[in-house]
């Protein structure tokens, strides 16, 4: 009598796939890689997720709703400098995890793709643009609340701190230590002081 097939845990499979995509990128991950990592046949992967691209998109969304959700939480802080500081602190903690120092999945997993994957490249680019937009909106809110000087430019500030955030991801992936990255954000935060309205 044949044994019963092993139960398929879709959530666990998604997390495993997410981590592999996160480390190796979309084009650096083959279907055979996914078969090995998930421990299930390709037919079951297709049945559960539809395609490699569909699995990748779902993995990115999973990242954004879980690990990557730190940004949304940090920007909810009332004080703008505290919010940006928390954003960077949490980013560095995530990006430099022991045995998991892959930076930001949205920044690193599909930053360069071949022409055949242009639609996916455009989709990932939009994810990064939306993060910068959320920073711009947060600075606009801070200005309306009287936390920023009247001549400060929320769009410029949002673009700048988005640049810093994405740069931290690249440096973490390149092996820069948590201590070095923290020293870098201290400089970025000092730059913010000149735009703050003293109370």
Q: What is this structure's SSE topology?
A:
Blueprint: H1 10-24, H2 31-38, H3 42-49, H4 52-65, H5 70-74, H6 80-95, H7 105-108, H8 118-144, H9 154-173, H10 178-193
* Regions with little confidence, pLDDT below 50 for 5+ residues: none
SS element count, helices: 10
Q: State the CATH topology of the largest domain.
A: Tetracycline Repressor, domain 2
The 3D shape can be described as elongated
Q: What fraction, in percent, of the residue positions are helical?
A: 55-70%
Please report the first level of CATH classification, the CATH class of the largest domain: Mainly Alpha
CATH superfamily of the largest domain: Tetracycline Repressor, domain 2
Give the averaged pLDDT, no decimals.
Answer: 91
Keywords: DNA-binding, Transcription, Transcription regulation
Protein name: TetR/AcrR family transcriptional regulator
GO molecular function: DNA binding
Domain HTH tetR-type: 7-67
What does this structure look like?
Residues 7-67 form the HTH tetR-type domain. With 199 residues, this protein is an all-alpha fold. It has 2 domains: 10-63, Arc Repressor Mutant, subunit A (Orthogonal Bundle); 67-193, Tetracycline Repressor, domain 2 (Orthogonal Bundle). It has 10 helices and no strands. The chain has helices at residues 10-24, 31-38, 42-49, 52-65, 70-74, 80-95, 105-108, 118-144, 154-173, 178-193. The longest helix is centred in the middle third of the chain and has 27 residues, at 118-144. The protein is elongated and about 60 Å long.
